[in-house]
Please model this.
Amino acid sequence: MSDSHVARVDLLSAVKKSVGMLFQTGKRHGERLLPQINVGIDLDSTIARIDEPWLARLNKACQTNYRSNQWTDWDLSFLTEDERRVFFEVFTPDLYEAVKPYPGAIEAIRDLAQKPGVKLVCVTTNPSKNADAFAYAKKCWLQKYFPDLAHSVLFSKKKNGLGLDVLVDDAPHHFQDVDFIPVLVERPWNKSVDCTLRFREWNTGKILLLSLADQFTRTAKQIQNMVPLLS
Ligand SMILES: [Mg+2]
Model:
């Protein structure tokens, strides 16, 4: 699979979509509504550092000594075929008991959640085997570290078509066919993804996302002011 994709949804397109929906909703309710930016936050390897405990399990099972900096492609080509099989076998829901958040992620999500006009939703994919148990484990993990996201979770293999204005993610395939503003979380396995908005550390990610939300709200209000909204 090629992971060189170009993110093509820009701020203005996303704002127009959002304001268009507001316009319709406002007409129905006879009121002027505030624009809201829907921000999807991926879980695995975006806010949840799963690589270290997952590799630790593999190393224990296979008597190997892999480090996270060796995981440099999405297809796990640094592992042998047998190791790849074991790798997926040891990925069970109880792994999340050992998973920690990336540094700065807790503060970033908390500050974003408190910002007026920002609606956060955690959008994550579960393995098809034990999907319900993974869903439960992830919700418990979110409750522990990200209570702002724990009650707003979508489990989905696809991340387009969900009404997101922004998606923050690390997986290369979610940067194809985007209908949201994509924000890439830089990890060693997504170096070839072509995406304008990107960050590696959550302290800079927080600044980027707060600024994006400001731009979104400002642009949405400008568009609202340009059209006679309600009769
Ligand atoms: Mg991910």
User: Anything to note?
Assistant: The first strand starts at residue 37 and ends at 41. Strands lie at 37-41, 48-49, 100-101, 118-124, 153-155, 166-169, 181-185, 198-199. Residues 45 and 205 are 14 Å apart (CA to CA).
